[in-house]
């Protein structure tokens, strides 16, 4: 597979083009990856799904047993280096594992908290001694990890933490005092990454082991969903931590917190994709057997519309996610080759932080759509705990809050673009100026009959719509733009749809060129997504323009948004029926 790393920089999809040949898709998984995926499916179906009620009831020791089993299969430490007890698998493979286990409800929450935010801070910021002490045990599950950042007064504002750390008089330890809330795995974790402010000022991370005097735990939280995951408060009362357990640099805790979140956001997209696929399987099975008016409800167009939209959203999420995972994998390898091996993955994830934020939003919202319509298709039975779709509905809701709320992630998308533009990392403003010049010229009405030219033009115009709106807003509002959150959210929605649209089209084109048996269905998905996205981008663009422009400037930009969000008429009704027909035939998500 050709590398795309050299041609696409982080956030560069807006100003750079890609080809199907240089785009990684799920159809490109190698034999080993497919074997690992099959192992994950077997583990999920044999060891997790039959015990969902017991997991939700927090049967004593069950979650730990499941994590131990996953560890024995190598699933916990798959992405950790072999030097620290892991399997050394690449980023694409570790993403695939998360996706394949994403249907594990509370189990996947515990697992990703353990081998993601619960382990990666030590792996990437720990001293060699810290890595040798903890990582091999975290890789096997002998030790379980957790991450303690959130406090009663600081959620999205992580740096507003009040927990303090004071160096002891003898200089050999730090004394922690404070409180953490919503700590996943707190009921059984052996090691915590805890954030506190040294002398109330310097935001710093510490490794805190279970059983440390002065560390105590609240009762298990009673949650709307993910009831089987352990969620407790942590209390630090003169909790003495050896100075050797200081993690990373003093005052640089934010570097750990924010860099780890980039990886977590993409992995959350993977987990939500896996969860959605299980919900689709559950829902289509019900729709095929539930009869009303003397026929299965799967025969009805209204139901087929919902089923097809589930497939479309999942195809889009997977296409965007694995495209990004490949970029991160390529960048990690390049950084490692340059001698930056210790933090290569973090550096790669930071490069694609914009895409990671996009994926977090689109993945969690795709899952929300799937489970919500899944309940609707189940009708009254969907509201009953006897049907697993009700659990899926409850469990899904947290994902729009995890890893930074979707609102925060939307704001971050534009914030990162603007900051990178100011630092010269990405020439967004230059591209925006080019679009402004194009708007003053006569449109090109020449026809291009080459395959997929019309679809590619639609995507290229989506990008121009964003550049026009973002460039205009930045010029008009300058530094005040960061306070216009509604406009930033509109621009983010345009970027999210555009990234998905391009990813979907590139994957469908590649499948068509490769003669894939499902290529025609993929093209139906691509055409439907482009057609619908044009309306969504048009709506968001008009809302943004009306929020900052007026007079002639407003009229000109509204003409521009109309020009850049045109899509050829397409019979999405029939396309969705064709997509639904394949889903109904196969009985599960089929890509």
From TrEMBL:
Protein name: Acyl-CoA dehydrogenase
Start and end residues of each Acyl-CoA dehydrogenase-like C-terminal domain: 461-563
GO MF annotation: an example: acyl-CoA dehydrogenase activity
Residues in Acyl-CoA oxidase/dehydrogenase middle domain copies: 146-239
Annotated catalysed reactions: a 2,3-saturated acyl-CoA + A = a 2,3-dehydroacyl-CoA + AH2
Oxidoreductase found in the keyword field: yes
Keyword field: FAD, Flavoprotein, Oxidoreductase
Record-linked PANTHER family: ACYL-COA DEHYDROGENASE, ISOVALERYL-COA DEHYDROGENASE, MITOCHONDRIAL-RELATED
Cofactor: FAD
Organism: Flavipsychrobacter stenotrophus
TM annotation in the entry: none
Domain Acyl-CoA dehydrogenase/oxidase C-terminal: 251-414
Domain Acyl-CoA dehydrogenase/oxidase N-terminal, residue spans: 30-142
Similarity annotation: Belongs to the acyl-CoA dehydrogenase family.
Comp. bias regions, Polar residues: 15-25
Region (Disordered): 1-26
